[in-house]
Amino acid sequence: MADKPSIPKGTRDFTPLEMARRNFIFDTIRKIFTTYGYLPIETPAMENLSSLMGKYGEEGDKLLFRILNSGDFRSGIAREELVSAPAGKLGNMISGKGLRYDLTVPFARFVVQHRGEILFPFRRYQIQPVWRADRPQRGRYREFYQCDVDVIGSDSLLNEYELVCIMDDVFTALGMKTVIRVNNRRVLAGVVEVMGEADRMTEITVSIDKLEKVGMKGVMEELREKGVGAASLEKLQPLLTRKGSNRENLDFLKGYLEGSAAGKGGLEEMNRLLDYLEADPPQAEVEFDMTLARGLDYYTGTIFEVVSDEVKMGSICGGGRYDDLTGIFGLEGVSGVGISFGADRIYDVLEQLDRFPAQATMDTRVLFVNFGEREAMHVFPVLGRLRKEGIPSELYPDPVRMKKQMSYANARNIPFVALMGEEELREGVVTLKEMASGSQERLTPDALVRRLSVQ
What we know:
BirA Bifunctional Protein, domain 2, Rossmann fold, alpha+beta, five-stranded mixed β-sheet
């Protein structure tokens, strides 16, 4: 017997119902992106490894899906090297491309490559899948969609304010209660400087970023294993345990970071951002989180993370300011800021809360019963009119028993069934049955279009 077909771990198939719900998420996000004046782009699923490597930190590089060179990937490599070369070196010898890890680095490459064709500041959105060779678990997949929105070519803090508004508008439109966490990488740089570990910014912030997962004890233990001294850890501890309002925490850091120019600059940006938000408060709670690190090397200023206030799921949106991401591709001094919505985790939250609206699960609005070929010929013009009005409609393909056709409509959650049998054809009407109530009404084709246009 043939093996049962399967798909790789960390990937998924999507049923029509799931696709309808996913499209509800994508359409909601896309509508808000365009409302704010952002323009769509797409980039290839694969990028040259030279574009990807070194942009996500050591841990991120390990999660890149590499693509073997086409043809005989061993061509030109001595047998001894194939056998004895270290894994990292061998990987570079047999693979020159990889699946994109996120949409931000490909966006930076896009900006540099097309800089003569775009107008700065450039506002773009992008909704495409990304791939990470991560260990699959609840809410974490190897293939998943990101919905990114960025503005590049401007260092104004008003862009950060606008992104908070976009996050708030998206999650409000999706019916989700969220917490928007904000911090600043310059604040973190100041913290590391006060600790006396200024040259270890990346490895220390990678550990701090795990606070929610492993707790303070786990973070401190990991930093000890990295060789961070007891005196430095003692200076860090108050930040990991401190509670207070946004303004109270900013006031605390004002004294804590007194000796750090970078830290004070980050605090000034945080104060200004909170001033903007207090002028027109968002519906979501905005929390200044001193431990938020966003463990990607390219962030340089404000950073964001959004979590559900109702379901424990991890980050469902995140991003931040990157001052010179395009510099790695030869275009220096171009600042940008952006955020990325995790559509798959958003789906999981909405599903767990049973928060998808009815229209997100509905496809066909009316099913015409098939009485036979003669009657079907009269159905065609009515179907055509409904479809031209944007009303999803279909004719059951076979003239089988009425009960079977009705059961099909029920199983598909089709709200209306239309009948055009001999009697209806004589009178020039359509009998419309509402499946939920069982009520029936006779309508002319014009009245049928008007009736089904009402949601």
